[in-house]
Amino acid sequence: MQKKYIGFFLGITAFLLIILFTELEPGKPEVTATMAVAALMAIWWVTETIPLAVTALVPLVLFPALGVLDGKAVSEVYMNHIIFVYVGGFMMALAMERWNLHRRIALKLLLLIGVSPGRILLGFMATSAFLSMWISNTATTMMMIPIVMSIVVSLEESLSGKSISRYATGLFLAIAYAASIGGMATLVGSPTNLVCPRILTLLYPGAPEISFTSWMVFALPISVVMLIMVWLVIHLKFKPSEKWEEVDRDHFKKAYRELGKSSREERIVLVLFLTLALLWITRTGITFNAFSIPGWAQLFKTPAYINDGTVAIFISLILFMIPAGKERKERIMDWKTAQRIPWNIVLLFGGGFALALGFQSSGLAIWFGEQLLWTHEVHPYLILLAVVALMSFLTELTSNVASTQMLLPVFASLAISSGNNPLLLMIPATLASSLAFMLPTATPPNAIIFGTNRINISTMVRTGFALNMLGILVVVLVTWLLGSSIFDIEPGVLPAWLSR
């Protein structure tokens, strides 16, 4: 309780000190005001002095009051397509849980990958990472949550009194982190990845294309190395203190047989679950250099109008329409079940989006980037290290898409002014925007697993900080090793295409 009081007054103090005694950008008080709000929210989020969802509402009051943003504009960002991906995904998760499909999948998965702590962890991380290469990390995490929850419950039952809560914490953290890391590997894996080639083309029309293949060849090694590191950190930090000597496959085989034959409702939910995944994967299509596989959204008049949220809600509506039970008096999904969606996480998402909008509109994001201009006489890879570190920690508090869109032009200018290829900073900075593991608000997967109420925020901060630092080093190292061969990045050399 004392910690919460300290956090409350520390946040207020930081806010007042910045507002009253700091001027970040002369003539632009909104830059300083946004920094003050960000400091207040960051401290309150970390210390949990008031509920996280309540802290997320702070921009609704302070941004209009301080002249940063119009109250209407702030309110509108609390509901967008990412929110509906979350809502629709959670609807599917609840439908799986209602008809016990998640337990059947979980037990089958356990039988396939084994029941040791390390193998379970590895199996879930590999699955999450692979799925998030092709669909949103939000959707991937939503798919994995009910399965992981069922395995945790199964382990708690089978270990007869042994506490595995610490291991469960690590398991939930691992699937969120793996989803973010897997999304780095392909252009379609994360919205930020597509920002980079788009901005590059706008700034430098003569620049070579960043293709799906070249991106994957460069980013996949980063994802693989990071997955190994996350597995090692989580396994060593959260492995059970006692051995699982009495847990064997027979227990889970017996439990699986006890489920009996799958019901009609289970089969319906499974079909819709697979349909949802397939629609997410194939919505935008995939381009391999000159070979292109169009997405199904191209069948519509305005493909850009359709997003992952559209798909999620479409399947959710079907869940409410299909009859269930022998007498068909109920549906596969009902509103009583849907009310279990953790709506506080919706507000948490909204707070992060509002803060990002403040960073973008006030100019604070650009101010952060400009603070690196002093590095023009520093070695290129030290500049790269600073940029990657800035992006990694900045996106803990802001939308990684907004930060990437605002800062990539600044980083491109910084690279050229220091005599370097813009790609030296732009591509690593884009990848670093996914290396945010510390706070629930940093990424949708972080927020989702925090919504399980099995994650302590201090544990997430400590674990995430170590992984942030490792990720920064990995991105810089891979850029040094592969940047020249894949993207023709030579430190201290301006590319010829700048003059085209």
Task: Please tag this protein with its features.
500 residues, mainly alpha, 68% helix
Give an overview of the whole structure:
The chain has 500 residues and is mainly alpha-helical. Among the domains are: 1-50; 81-338, no CATH class. 68% of the residues lie in helices and 2% in strands. The chain contains 23 helices and 4 strands. The chain has helices at 2-21, 29-47, 52-55, 58-65, 71-76, 81-98, 101-113, 117-132, 137-158, 165-183, 191-203, 212-238, 249-258, 264-282, 308-321, 335-338, 343-362, 364-370, 380-394, 400-417, 423-432, 444-450, 457-487; strands at residues 285-288, 291-294, 323-324, 330-331. The strands form 2 sheets. It has a two-stranded antiparallel sheet. A hairpin with a 2-residue loop joins strand 1 and strand 2. Helix 2 (29-47) packs antiparallel against helix 4 (58-65), helix 7 (101-113) packs antiparallel against helix 13 (249-258) and helix 8 packs antiparallel against helix 9. The longest helix is centred in the C-terminal third of the chain and has 31 residues, at 457-487. It is globular, with a radius of gyration of 23 Å. It starts with a helix and ends in a 13-residue tail after the last helix. 48% of the residues are buried. The mean pLDDT is 84.
